[in-house]
């Protein structure tokens, strides 16, 4: 399954994140890929603010993980760019969090084989002045993305 979407601006990326937040549930993992500055954190910010309220959402580049209480579940926003080894996710507690939290994971390639096959992958690529989002995942994601 693959769904493409064009995003023209930062505000449109935030708005898409808000829409995407409506289909997320406890135990969901969203893997965000793309070059530096492509919009992974902006998309995450839209999701987090929609689920947790209008709060400041810093990039977790230096902290690696930021957690948020979002009512029925906890949300983990992870930036694994500085992760040295895939097994470091166990020390962070990320492997366990993927069971009962919503996890937004930037640079998921750093997890190696530990990324769940059930994850929704959103690849963000520069396309002119905008971005091209390519979303892929298993059949349940295809059904859920039809509502975004």
Structure description:
With 148 residues, the protein is α/β, with parallel strands linked by helices. It has a single domain, classed as Rossmann fold (3-Layer(aba) Sandwich). It is 30% helix and 30% strand. It contains 5 helices and 7 strands, in the order E-H-E-H-E-E-H-H-E-E-E-H. Strands 1-7-6-2-5-4-3 form a 7-stranded mixed β-sheet, with helices on both faces. Strand 6 (120-127) and strand 7 (130-136) form a beta hairpin. The protein is globular and about 40 Å long.
How is this fold's topology laid out?
Blueprint: E1 2-7, H1 10-21, E2 29-34, H2 40-52, E3 65-70, E4 73-79, H3 88-92, H4 94-100, E5 102-106, E6 120-127, E7 130-136, H5 139-145
Parallel strand pairs: 2-5, 2-6, 4-5
Antiparallel strand pairs: 1-7, 3-4, 6-7
Largest sheet: 7 strands, mixed
Detail the poorly predicted runs.
none
Query: Regarding CATH, which class?
Result: Alpha Beta
Give the end-to-end Cα distance, rounded to a whole number of Å: 15 Å
Instruction: Give the H and E element order.
Output: EHEHEEHHEEEH
Q: Rough shape?
A: globular
**Architecture per CATH nomenclature, i.e. the level-2 architecture:** 3-Layer(aba) Sandwich
Helix content: 25-40%
Defining key terms:
148 residues; Rossmann fold; seven-stranded mixed sheet; 30% strand
Write a brief caption for the model.
With 148 residues, the protein is of the alpha/beta class. The chain has helices spanning 10-21, 40-52, 88-92, 94-100, 139-145; strands at residues 2-7, 29-34, 65-70, 73-79, 102-106, 120-127, 130-136. It has a single domain, classed as Rossmann fold, CATH 3.40.50.
């Amino acid at each position: 399954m693959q769904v493409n979407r064009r995003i023209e601006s930062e505000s449109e990326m935030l708005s898409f994140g808000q829409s995407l937040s409506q289909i997320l549930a406890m135990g969901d993992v969203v893997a965000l890929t793309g070059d530096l500055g492509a919009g992974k954190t902006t998309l995450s910010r839209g999701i987090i603010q929609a689920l947790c309220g209008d709060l400041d959402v810093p990039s977790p580049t230096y902290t690696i993980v930021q957690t948020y209480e979002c009512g029925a579940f906890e949300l983990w926003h992870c930036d694994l760019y500085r992760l040295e080894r895939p097994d470091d996710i166990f020390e962070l507690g990320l492997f366990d969090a993927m069971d009962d939290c919503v996890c937004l994971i930037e640079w998921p390639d750093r997890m190696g084989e530990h990324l769940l096959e059930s994850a929704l992958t959103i690849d963000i690529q520069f396309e002119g002045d905008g971005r091209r989002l390519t979303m892929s995942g298993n059949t349940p994601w295809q059904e859920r993305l039809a509502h975004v």
